[in-house]
Specification:
two-stranded antiparallel ribbon, 27% strand, 223 residues, alpha/beta
């Protein structure tokens, strides 16, 4: 089984890379792990992941990273799996009303790889070995600071966490039928730009601990 761990930046998986047993890094074993830096944002992640898949076909892609929370009831530093993704800022604002591709009739709700206008992880139940609590994600190209836009993501898309790469993984995984798992830890609340109030280091530590435990569990019982 070949597992690829992907993140927008090396800093998000570097603690895991330094800690993981070297036997998991060898591509010649029955179970092996590789590391991948996708770059920041949907465009860089999409191109980078496609290049990766062209070189090898992973058994599983794990995208790990930090995320902002749209829900202030969610505890900072907590780790979640993502069950569903939407693209939050692909569309137009017309007469003060937001319209996405589906509202504009430019795409159909169930046109592959979409399902009911979103990108659910159909492999989550099978691969969520740690039983991490699952949340909905929204992927954006611009970090949200506007309260009205944040409310739109919560109400229209039922999103809990915001990232800049999640939808790229879900789109490619669903389109190419490659199992994937997105694991995110919450570093901050959306709209809070005072980084003194963020829990970035705690989020990265908890994220890497969770993915390390996941790899350990998966290596013992490869799917």
């Amino acid at each position: 089984m070949r597992v690829i761990i992907s993140a927008a930046t090396k800093g998000e998986w570097m603690p895991l890379y330094q800690k993981i047993n070297p036997k998991f890094v060898s591509p010649n074993k029955k179970f092996s792990v590789g590391f991948h830096e996708s770059g920041i944002g949907m465009l860089a992640s999409s191109v980078s992941l496609m290049k990766l898949i062209a070189q090898e076909t992973p058994s599983l892609i794990i995208q790990m990273g930090i995320a902002g929370s749209l829900d202030t009831k969610i505890q900072l530093g907590k780790v979640y799996s993502i069950k569903n993704e939407v693209i939050g800022d692909l569309g137009v604002t017309e007469h003060k009303q937001w319209k996405d591709l589906f509202d504009l009739k430019l795409d159909k709700a169930n046109a592959a790889p979409f399902e009911k206008k979103s990108l659910p992880n159909t492999w989550l139940k099978q691969y969520n070995l740690l039983k991490l609590p699952a949340k909905n994600g929204v992927t954006v190209n611009t970090i949200t600071t506007d309260k009205k836009i944040a409310e739109r993501y919560r109400v229209k898309y039922h999103a809990d966490l915001e990232s800049m790469e999640g939808a790229a993984l879900h789109y490619i995984g669903r389109d190419l039928n490659i199992p994937f798992l997105q694991i995110r830890s919450v570093s901050n609340y959306i709209g809070e730009r005072n980084k003194a109030k963020w829990k970035l280091q705690e989020a990265i530590y908890n994220l890497n601990e969770a993915v390390f435990n996941y790899i350990e569990a998966l290596s013992k019982h490869p799917l």
